[in-house]
What does this fold into?
Amino acid sequence: MLIAEIVSVDPFGERLRPGTGAGFVVLVAFVLAFLAIRTSARLTRSVSWWPGGVETGGVHIHHLVWGICLMMLCGFLAFAAPLGAPWWHFVAIGFGVGAGLTMDEFALWVRLQDVYWATEGRASFDAVVISAAFAGLVVLGTQPFGLDDPASISATAVAVALILGLAVICFVKGRVLLGVVGLFVPVVALIGAVRLAHPSSLWARRRYSQQRLERATARFSPNRRVTRWQRRIGDLIAGAPSAQPSPVVGTPPASDDDPGPTTRT
It folds into this structure.
Protein backbone atom coordinates (compact mmCIF):
# COMPACT_ATOMS: atom_id res chain seq x y z
CA MET A 1 0.00 0.00 0.00
CA LEU A 2 2.84 2.38 0.84
CA ILE A 3 4.46 1.77 -2.55
CA ALA A 4 1.14 2.35 -4.29
CA GLU A 5 0.73 5.67 -2.48
CA ILE A 6 4.27 6.74 -3.45
CA VAL A 7 3.95 6.03 -7.17
CA SER A 8 0.51 7.66 -7.31
CA VAL A 9 1.94 11.02 -6.26
CA ASP A 10 1.99 13.63 -9.01
CA PRO A 11 5.22 15.58 -8.35
CA PHE A 12 4.21 18.39 -10.72
CA GLY A 13 0.60 18.81 -9.66
CA GLU A 14 -1.52 20.79 -12.11
CA ARG A 15 1.42 22.75 -13.50
CA LEU A 16 2.31 20.16 -16.13
CA ARG A 17 -0.55 18.57 -18.02
CA PRO A 18 -0.62 16.48 -21.19
CA GLY A 19 -0.18 18.80 -24.16
CA THR A 20 2.20 21.70 -23.79
CA GLY A 21 3.09 20.42 -20.31
CA ALA A 22 4.30 17.14 -21.78
CA GLY A 23 6.12 19.09 -24.48
CA PHE A 24 7.93 21.11 -21.82
CA VAL A 25 9.05 17.91 -20.06
CA VAL A 26 10.28 16.45 -23.36
CA LEU A 27 12.12 19.67 -24.25
CA VAL A 28 13.91 19.92 -20.90
CA ALA A 29 14.89 16.24 -20.99
CA PHE A 30 16.06 16.65 -24.59
CA VAL A 31 18.35 19.59 -23.83
CA LEU A 32 19.75 18.08 -20.63
CA ALA A 33 20.39 14.72 -22.33
CA PHE A 34 22.24 16.44 -25.18
CA LEU A 35 24.40 18.45 -22.77
CA ALA A 36 25.11 15.35 -20.67
CA ILE A 37 26.11 13.07 -23.54
CA ARG A 38 28.13 15.82 -25.23
CA THR A 39 29.97 16.43 -21.96
CA SER A 40 30.64 12.70 -21.66
CA ALA A 41 32.02 12.61 -25.22
CA ARG A 42 34.28 15.58 -24.51
CA LEU A 43 35.60 13.94 -21.35
CA THR A 44 36.28 10.73 -23.25
CA ARG A 45 38.16 12.78 -25.80
CA SER A 46 40.29 14.71 -23.31
CA VAL A 47 40.94 12.48 -20.26
CA SER A 48 41.92 8.85 -19.85
CA TRP A 49 39.95 8.03 -16.70
CA TRP A 50 36.47 8.64 -18.14
CA PRO A 51 34.76 5.28 -18.90
CA GLY A 52 33.85 6.30 -22.45
CA GLY A 53 31.61 4.37 -24.81
CA VAL A 54 30.21 0.86 -24.89
CA GLU A 55 31.84 -1.83 -27.03
CA THR A 56 30.83 -5.42 -27.62
CA GLY A 57 32.75 -7.84 -29.79
CA GLY A 58 34.99 -5.02 -30.95
CA VAL A 59 31.99 -3.01 -32.21
CA HIS A 60 31.42 0.46 -30.76
CA ILE A 61 27.77 1.02 -29.86
CA HIS A 62 27.04 4.65 -30.68
CA HIS A 63 24.73 6.40 -28.26
CA LEU A 64 22.21 7.09 -31.01
CA VAL A 65 21.40 3.35 -30.81
CA TRP A 66 20.31 3.74 -27.18
CA GLY A 67 18.45 6.91 -28.09
CA ILE A 68 16.50 5.26 -30.92
CA CYS A 69 15.57 2.28 -28.73
CA LEU A 70 14.45 4.58 -25.91
CA MET A 71 12.32 6.71 -28.23
CA MET A 72 10.70 3.59 -29.72
CA LEU A 73 9.88 2.22 -26.28
CA CYS A 74 8.49 5.49 -24.93
CA GLY A 75 6.57 6.20 -28.14
CA PHE A 76 4.94 2.77 -28.00
CA LEU A 77 4.01 3.19 -24.33
CA ALA A 78 2.55 6.64 -25.02
CA PHE A 79 0.22 5.15 -27.66
CA ALA A 80 -0.52 1.76 -26.12
CA ALA A 81 -0.79 2.38 -22.37
CA PRO A 82 -3.43 4.56 -20.65
CA LEU A 83 -0.92 6.54 -18.64
CA GLY A 84 -1.76 8.84 -15.78
CA ALA A 85 0.46 11.01 -13.62
CA PRO A 86 3.26 10.52 -12.81
CA TRP A 87 3.81 7.76 -15.40
CA TRP A 88 3.34 9.94 -18.47
CA HIS A 89 5.97 12.29 -17.00
CA PHE A 90 8.47 9.42 -16.96
CA VAL A 91 7.58 8.43 -20.52
CA ALA A 92 7.96 12.06 -21.67
CA ILE A 93 11.33 12.29 -19.94
CA GLY A 94 12.44 9.01 -21.52
CA PHE A 95 11.40 10.19 -24.98
CA GLY A 96 13.24 13.49 -24.53
CA VAL A 97 16.40 11.71 -23.35
CA GLY A 98 16.23 9.36 -26.33
CA ALA A 99 15.80 12.29 -28.71
CA GLY A 100 18.78 14.06 -27.15
CA LEU A 101 21.03 11.01 -27.55
CA THR A 102 19.90 10.52 -31.14
CA MET A 103 20.14 14.12 -32.31
CA ASP A 104 23.62 14.44 -30.81
CA GLU A 105 24.76 12.12 -33.60
CA PHE A 106 22.59 13.65 -36.31
CA ALA A 107 25.58 14.10 -38.63
CA LEU A 108 26.46 10.41 -38.29
CA TRP A 109 23.05 9.05 -39.25
CA VAL A 110 22.77 11.49 -42.14
CA ARG A 111 26.25 10.90 -43.59
CA LEU A 112 26.70 7.28 -42.44
CA GLN A 113 30.20 8.29 -41.37
CA ASP A 114 31.66 8.85 -37.93
CA VAL A 115 32.17 12.60 -38.31
CA TYR A 116 31.41 13.37 -34.66
CA TRP A 117 34.56 15.44 -34.12
CA ALA A 118 35.02 16.46 -37.75
CA THR A 119 33.91 19.82 -39.09
CA GLU A 120 30.92 18.10 -40.69
CA GLY A 121 29.91 16.88 -37.24
CA ARG A 122 28.91 20.41 -36.27
CA ALA A 123 25.69 19.68 -38.16
CA SER A 124 24.60 17.70 -35.08
CA PHE A 125 24.82 20.81 -32.89
CA ASP A 126 22.96 22.85 -35.52
CA ALA A 127 20.23 20.19 -35.65
CA VAL A 128 19.87 20.27 -31.86
CA VAL A 129 19.53 24.07 -31.88
CA ILE A 130 16.89 23.93 -34.61
CA SER A 131 14.98 21.14 -32.86
CA ALA A 132 15.06 22.98 -29.53
CA ALA A 133 13.86 26.19 -31.19
CA PHE A 134 10.94 24.39 -32.84
CA ALA A 135 9.97 22.60 -29.61
CA GLY A 136 10.32 25.79 -27.60
CA LEU A 137 7.96 27.67 -29.90
CA VAL A 138 5.41 24.86 -29.61
CA VAL A 139 5.70 24.77 -25.82
CA LEU A 140 5.25 28.53 -25.62
CA GLY A 141 1.96 28.11 -27.45
CA THR A 142 2.99 30.07 -30.54
CA GLN A 143 0.44 29.54 -33.30
CA PRO A 144 1.83 28.02 -36.52
CA PHE A 145 1.82 30.38 -39.52
CA GLY A 146 1.08 33.29 -37.20
CA LEU A 147 -2.65 32.49 -37.29
CA ASP A 148 -3.65 33.89 -33.92
CA ASP A 149 -7.15 34.91 -35.03
CA PRO A 150 -9.57 32.76 -37.03
CA ALA A 151 -10.15 33.84 -40.60
CA SER A 152 -12.02 32.60 -43.64
CA ILE A 153 -10.93 29.32 -45.19
CA SER A 154 -9.66 31.01 -48.33
CA ALA A 155 -7.68 33.65 -46.42
CA THR A 156 -6.19 30.99 -44.14
CA ALA A 157 -5.22 28.83 -47.13
CA VAL A 158 -3.50 31.77 -48.83
CA ALA A 159 -1.62 32.70 -45.65
CA VAL A 160 -0.47 29.12 -45.04
CA ALA A 161 0.66 28.70 -48.65
CA LEU A 162 2.57 32.00 -48.59
CA ILE A 163 4.32 31.29 -45.30
CA LEU A 164 5.13 27.72 -46.33
CA GLY A 165 6.59 29.06 -49.57
CA LEU A 166 8.80 31.52 -47.69
CA ALA A 167 9.92 28.79 -45.28
CA VAL A 168 10.78 26.46 -48.18
CA ILE A 169 12.87 29.22 -49.76
CA CYS A 170 14.73 29.56 -46.44
CA PHE A 171 15.39 25.82 -46.37
CA VAL A 172 16.63 25.78 -49.98
CA LYS A 173 18.86 28.76 -49.20
CA GLY A 174 20.45 26.86 -46.32
CA ARG A 175 18.85 29.07 -43.67
CA VAL A 176 17.05 26.26 -41.87
CA LEU A 177 16.73 27.94 -38.47
CA LEU A 178 15.10 31.01 -39.98
CA GLY A 179 12.74 28.75 -41.92
CA VAL A 180 11.70 26.79 -38.84
CA VAL A 181 11.14 29.91 -36.74
CA GLY A 182 9.40 31.51 -39.71
CA LEU A 183 6.71 28.82 -39.63
CA PHE A 184 5.57 30.43 -36.36
CA VAL A 185 6.76 34.03 -36.89
CA PRO A 186 6.18 34.82 -40.58
CA VAL A 187 8.33 37.96 -40.62
CA VAL A 188 11.37 35.78 -39.83
CA ALA A 189 10.62 33.60 -42.87
CA LEU A 190 10.38 36.74 -45.00
CA ILE A 191 13.75 37.95 -43.74
CA GLY A 192 15.37 34.59 -44.45
CA ALA A 193 13.81 34.39 -47.91
CA VAL A 194 15.16 37.77 -49.08
CA ARG A 195 18.67 37.47 -47.61
CA LEU A 196 21.66 35.91 -49.32
CA ALA A 197 21.73 32.14 -49.48
CA HIS A 198 24.52 30.03 -48.02
CA PRO A 199 27.09 29.46 -50.80
CA SER A 200 26.83 25.67 -50.46
CA SER A 201 23.02 25.66 -50.63
CA LEU A 202 20.97 24.38 -53.55
CA TRP A 203 19.63 27.89 -54.18
CA ALA A 204 23.13 29.38 -54.53
CA ARG A 205 24.41 26.55 -56.74
CA ARG A 206 21.46 26.70 -59.12
CA ARG A 207 20.54 30.38 -59.24
CA TYR A 208 23.56 32.53 -58.35
CA SER A 209 25.93 34.04 -60.87
CA GLN A 210 29.63 33.95 -60.12
CA GLN A 211 29.55 37.49 -58.76
CA ARG A 212 26.61 36.81 -56.45
CA LEU A 213 28.16 33.53 -55.34
CA GLU A 214 31.29 35.44 -54.36
CA ARG A 215 29.12 37.83 -52.32
CA ALA A 216 27.51 34.88 -50.54
CA THR A 217 30.91 33.33 -49.86
CA ALA A 218 32.12 36.60 -48.35
CA ARG A 219 28.89 36.89 -46.33
CA PHE A 220 29.47 33.48 -44.75
CA SER A 221 33.24 33.78 -44.48
CA PRO A 222 34.65 32.14 -41.32
CA ASN A 223 36.69 35.30 -40.74
CA ARG A 224 33.66 37.52 -40.16
CA ARG A 225 33.13 38.63 -36.57
CA VAL A 226 29.62 37.18 -36.33
CA THR A 227 30.78 33.85 -37.73
CA ARG A 228 33.71 33.74 -35.30
CA TRP A 229 31.38 34.36 -32.35
CA GLN A 230 28.98 31.68 -33.55
CA ARG A 231 31.88 29.25 -33.86
CA ARG A 232 33.15 30.10 -30.38
CA ILE A 233 29.73 29.55 -28.84
CA GLY A 234 29.42 26.25 -30.68
CA ASP A 235 32.89 25.17 -29.55
CA LEU A 236 32.06 26.13 -25.96
CA ILE A 237 28.91 24.01 -25.90
CA ALA A 238 29.68 21.17 -28.31
CA GLY A 239 33.48 21.10 -28.36
CA ALA A 240 35.82 22.19 -31.13
CA PRO A 241 36.09 19.98 -34.22
CA SER A 242 39.25 17.97 -34.67
CA ALA A 243 41.65 18.63 -37.51
CA GLN A 244 41.91 14.89 -38.10
CA PRO A 245 39.14 13.48 -40.31
CA SER A 246 36.93 10.76 -38.88
CA PRO A 247 36.97 7.30 -40.50
CA VAL A 248 34.14 6.04 -42.66
CA VAL A 249 31.91 3.57 -40.85
CA GLY A 250 32.79 0.04 -41.96
CA THR A 251 36.45 0.68 -42.75
CA PRO A 252 38.92 -1.85 -41.33
CA PRO A 253 40.44 -1.05 -37.94
CA ALA A 254 43.79 0.67 -37.78
CA SER A 255 46.93 -1.40 -37.41
CA ASP A 256 49.12 -1.44 -34.31
CA ASP A 257 51.44 1.08 -35.98
CA ASP A 258 48.53 3.46 -36.65
CA PRO A 259 46.48 4.17 -33.51
CA GLY A 260 43.85 6.05 -35.52
CA PRO A 261 41.54 8.71 -34.09
CA THR A 262 40.70 8.94 -30.42
CA THR A 263 37.69 6.86 -29.38
CA ARG A 264 34.64 8.45 -27.79
CA THR A 265 31.13 7.69 -26.72
About this structure: The chain is about 60% helix and 0% strand. Residues 20-46 form the longest helix (27 residues). The first strand starts at residue 54 and ends at 56.
